[in-house]
Amino acid sequence: MNMEAFILGCGGMMPLPGRHLTSMLLRREGDLFLFDAGEGTQVSLRALNLKWKKINAIFISHTHADHVTGLPGMLMLSSQVDRSEPLYIIGPPRVKEYVDTARRVLDMYINYDIVVQEIKDPTVAQTVYEGDGFKVRAIPLRHTKVCVGYVLQEDSRPGVFSPETATALGVPRGPQWGQLQRGETVELESGVQVQPEQVLGATRPGRKVSYVTDSLYLPSIVPEVKDSDLLICEGMFHDEFRESAHEKRHMTASDAGRLAAEAGVRRVGLIHYSPRYTDRQLKILLKEAQNIFPASFLTRDRMVLTIPYIE
Q1: Which terminus of the chain has fewer Cβ atoms in its 10 Å neighbourhood, N or C?
Q2: Are 233 and 262 within 8 A, CB to CB?
Q3: How far from 212 is each of 45, 208, 269, 279, 280, CA to CA, in Å?
């Protein structure tokens, strides 16, 4: 089962040529999940040939303009798409007010259901969306207004199936092997039952992707994003501007590296760069993050990241 992350925009505060505002799309098989919708989101979706009408849910971190200004234009595309499933929009308080106001003032023609779900208590980590084999949790962050991060965690997978052990136990090759691989008990013609754990190795973890932006570093984030296969985390400034970052409730690149190291993630992609940095100057942020966590990298607009299973 494939999983890919598409960076639709990596900038913070204001869009720049070649740097749209922060947004990430996650594709898991046929499901598409959008995290934030900064200005320019539509452009990157089109450039990457990603189908807007297949987006299942949009997760909004907070209602600052640089994270939601791309949303009204995307919703207005609904008059040009053919879909029967509802679109879910999930976020902290005031997301519904923003969506409802935009729809009313812009007199949008909407030809399918839009279901807006506000997180009632964004100060508490909680599951906000569930699908086949995975859940999405919202985790509390600390910004200048109510803000949350998101973690998509797949269910654990069965261990590796041993054909040799199954044969030795008398299970014939065929449908019963598939039953055991799915975690089902099978009964042989002799009446003997074979349990899945007899032929399967240790349970394997599913994949985990975390999205954290617009927040101070918080120790409470660490256990939530722990062991992520991919952490997308803001690194808005370098340490020379740490005081300013703290005042504005943002992380520096070294904060992102620290978070990644403490959480034991596999890799961290920096995002939400201050417009003060040119593309060449972003290497300053990368160096600071890598000094703490070597598996740090810079995200770029329209970057595609594959998230493989770890066997």
Answers
A1: C
A2: no
A3: 21, 13, 10, 22, 24
The CATH number of the domain covering residues in 3-157+204-306: 3.60.15.10
Exposure on the CB side of residue 214, measured as CA atoms within 13 A? 24
pLDDT at 56: 94
pLDDT at res. 136? 98
141: closest CA among 228, 247, 215?
Answer: 215
CB atoms within 10 A of CB 136: 21
Give the H or E element holding residue 150: strand 148-154
8 A C-beta contact, residue 211 and residue 6: no
What local confidence, expressed as pLDDT, does residue 39 receive? 87
Q: Give the mean pLDDT per block of 10 residues along the chain (311 residues).
A: 93 92 94 93 92 90 96 82 87 96 91 93 97 96 97 91 90 91 89 90 91 97 98 96 95 98 98 96 98 98 94 69
Q: What is the pLDDT of residue 79?
A: 65
Residues 269 and 258: their CA atoms lie apart, in Å, by 13
* pLDDT at residue 130 in the model: 96
Q: Quick check: 182 and 158 in contact, CB under 8 A? A: yes
Give tens-digit pLDDT for 69-93. 999 988 887 667 777 889 999 999 9
First to last CA, the chain: 13
Contact 154, 161 (CB under 8 A): no
pTM, whole model, 2 decimals?
0.91
CB 190 within 8 A of CB 117: no
Which candidate, 110, 101, 24, 113, places its Cα nearest to that of 74? 110
How far apart CA 72 and CA 100 sit, in angstroms, is 10
Which positions are catalytic?
Answer: 66
